[in-house]
Write a structure and sequence with these properties.
seven-stranded mixed beta sheet, binds S-adenosylmethionine, DNA polymerase, domain 1, Rossmann fold, 2 domains, alpha/beta
Length: 309
């Protein structure tokens, strides 16, 4: 059975600078690699709340019998509401974005263009929207926009033309492999190590799970929730995710940028509420050689130093 090797485990745990009796949140439990390490760093008064959208991840989490640990089946976009029910503010929040290895490796989840399955791609099995709905019902304009925006696919128009033609001539596209073949035939052949379906599958996965929108929603809510001196560590896996995180940090750092030549007293300038505790980190070459799924990871860490007014 496929398992998940946690990415940048030591780096993320060090970045959180865990307080033994603190309250921590792991927004993306997955198979619990990071959660278990956080628990090791807590004493008996410490607490960890983990979230995941995926029912398989929840099943795994329920095996952890530890009174300091709690799991909720929820999207992290609901963090603000989830935390309203808690008495404490978190000392640290971790997000290890994207999908887990079991999600990719279990054919029936429909995330892989190499494994034959229904076009599903839902992280949360209780939601309605699947990749099949999008591929078979979106207009050509909407599909092209999706492939550009979420896949940065330069052959978006060619791919969509083939999808629409297939839909008109043969009917529904139901299987992952069927879609991968349509894409393969649509794009010019290059000597590339990447499968031509990579970007389309990425775009569909992002849309089905509203991955980028949910990151945009959680970042301000998580930052607001943190205690002063609380830290947030975020691991992302592609540039679309990282761009959102980078921009979020940038806006927090530029709280009160006063244009030059405007006469203003130093004390009238609002200090940024955030500190970037370290530069963006990437996995070591040793980690990448042992786990190639780590290769695109980026870790960014911030600390909250002021409450915003
Ligand atoms: C990369 S894996 C996390 C792996 C985990 N850190 C570990 O070591 O096992 C990402 C997990 O986050 C979950 N996930 C992704 N987006 C989510 C969201 N918006 N809300 C809750 N869980 C989410 C996925 O279902 C997946 O299980």
């Amino acid at each position: 059975m496929s398992t998940h090797v946690p990415v940048m485990l030591n780096e993320a745990i060090n970045a959180l600078a865990i307080i033994p009796n603190g309250f921590y949140i792991d927004c993306t439990f997955g198979r619990g690699g990071h959660s278990k390490e956080i628990l090791k760093n807590l004493n008996e008064d410490g607490r960890l709340l983990a979230l995941d959208k995926d029912l398989e991840a929840i099943k795994e989490a329920e095996k952890i019998k530890d009174k300091r640990f709690e799991i909720e089946h929820a999207s992290f976009k609901n963090l603000k509401n989830i935390l309203k029910k808690k008495l404490q503010k978190p000392d640290g929040i971790l997000m290890d974005l994207g999908i887990s290895s079991p999600q990719i490796d279990q054919a029936e989840r429909g995330f892989s263009f190499q494994l034959d399955a229904n076009l599903d791609m839902r992280m949360n099995q209780s939601q309605k929207l699947t990749a099949s709905e999008i591929v078979n019902n979106y207009s050509d304009d909407d599909l092209v926009k999706l492939l550009y925006d979420y896949g940065e696919e330069r052959f978006a128009k060619k791919i969509v033309k083939s999808i629409i033609q297939y839909r008109e001539e043969k009917g529904k596209i139901s299987r992952t492999i069927e879609l991968a073949e349509i894409i393969n035939k649509a794009v010019p052949k290059f000597d590339s190590s990447k499968n031509p379906a990579t970007k389309t599958f990425q775009a569909l996965r992002i849309k089905v799970n509203e991955e980028l929108l949910e990151i945009k929603e959680v970042l301000p809510a998580a930052f607001e929730a943190l205690k002063i001196n609380g830290r947030m560590a975020i691991i992302s896996f592609h540039s679309l995710e990282d761009r959102i995180i980078k921009n979020f940090i940038k806006t927090k750092l530029n709280t009160d940028k006063v244009p030059k030549k405007i006469p203003i007293l130093q004390r009238q300038i609002k200090s940024p509420p955030i500190k970037v505790t370290q530069k963006m980190q990437t996995p070591s070459s040793i980690e990448i050689s042992k786990n190639k799924r780590a290769r695109s990871a980026k870790l960014r860490v911030i600390e909250k130093i002021l409450e915003e007014r």
